[in-house]
Amino acid sequence: MTFEKLKPYLYVIFLQFGNAGLVIIAKAALNQGMNHYTFATYRNLIAALVMAPFALIFERKGRPKLTFSIFLKIMLLGFLEPVVDQNLYYAGMKYTTATFAVAMTNIIPALTFLMAWVCRMEKVNIKKVHSIGKIVGTLVTVGGAMIMTVVAGPAIGLPWTKDSTTKHQQQSATHVSPGDNIKGSMMIIAGCLSWSCFYIVQAITLKSYPAELSLTTLICAAGALQGGIVTVIAEKGHNEAWKLQLDAGLVTMVYVGVICSGLGYYLSGIIMKSKGPVFVTAFNPLSMVIVAVLGSIVLAESLNLGRVLGAVVIVMGLYLVIWGKSKDESQPPTSKCDPNELPPVNHQQMIPMTVTSTRFGKLEMDSVSIAITAN
Asked: What is the pLDDT of residues 75-126, one digit of tens each?
């Protein structure tokens, strides 16, 4: 497999490493009192400022014209993920736990798959084995993520986690009341739905505005603008919410803005152009595996049988999705010609030619006028 074919896989794995770090540090900053409205606004403002120079330099000549239709799509993108999803997700995380928030994001692949299917952006033929493989693989990855969350099982003793026991987990656990849990769950589910819509609209917008750096910058700028308006309304009279300090909150804003918003939107756009939105979201459950492995190695958190079993199931599901997508790409193009895809005929470029009458025995050709379209 060449590097060009490997790039989408490397990019999407990088995205999941970034998302894994996001949940851990964002939860810590929120617990210290960080305002989620200003956090989302500053996050996208930082991302726009970081990505703008690259867009101006590298896409100076190839940037498409910004039409009113594209502008509306960009404003919608800036509202769906930077404003709606991020605010609802962070607010829901406050009412629940980081583990629950990560687990709920694993419904995004299923939601995106359904939306892409409805919008005819994903090839699905239930008579084909590879199409069934994509559907089953998506469901299996979601199921594996739920196994990691729900199933505990006995602890697995590893050399570097020997001193880590259930006492550490009990100390780090956060008590959540039933009412807050329901409220937070509804917020996170609504945020995930908005996030899935974002991926679909981004894939559609890239077809008419194929400039990933510029699109990322504009999305983040639109998100910062709309998020700022929402923050002013929600935090009216509370000017302290806008105050920045040299603490974990500022570090989180920079990390999330550059890695998750800036590079995240840019790389997901590149992947979508060749693989589609379903491929991007299919790897979301991988972040849970990354969190579990890094938590075991770096934080000496003990692994249990449920996490290992769930990780194995997630890998199996991802394999099915990747296999199904590869079979889609290897399918020969259809021989049917869509008349809507034919280029319009320009009558001003038609060159008249005349075939004169010729006799071959009894065969006679009358004068015929032929028009050839000039390319």
From this structure: 999 999 999 998 998 888 778 766 677 777 778 888 888 888 888 887 777 7
- Name the amino acid, one letter, at 235: E
Token pair belonging to 30: 């929120």
More confident residue, 372 or 39: 39
Residue 303 parent element (H or E): strand 303-304
Long-range Cβ pairs for the range 311-316 (8 Å, 24+): 311/144, 311/148, 312/144, 313/140, 313/141, 313/143, 313/144, 313/147, 314/140, 314/141, 314/144, 314/145, 314/148, 314/285, 314/286, 314/288, 314/289, 315/144, 315/289, 316/137, 316/140, 316/144
Q: How is residue 81 written in tokens?
A: 């993920």
User: How many other CB atoms are there within 10 angstroms of residue 322's CB atom?
Assistant: 18
Position 9, amino acid: Y
The CA distance from 341 to 345, in Å, is 12
Residues shown for the chain:
375
What is the tens place of the pLDDT at every residue in 133-168?
A: 888 888 887 787 777 667 766 766 655 555 554 444
Give CA 167 to chain center in angstroms: 36
Question: In the predicted model, what is the mean pLDDT of the chain?
Answer: 77
Give the Cα separation of 132 and 138 in Å (integer).
10
What proportions of the chain, in percent to the nearest 5, are helix, strand and coil? 70, 5, 20
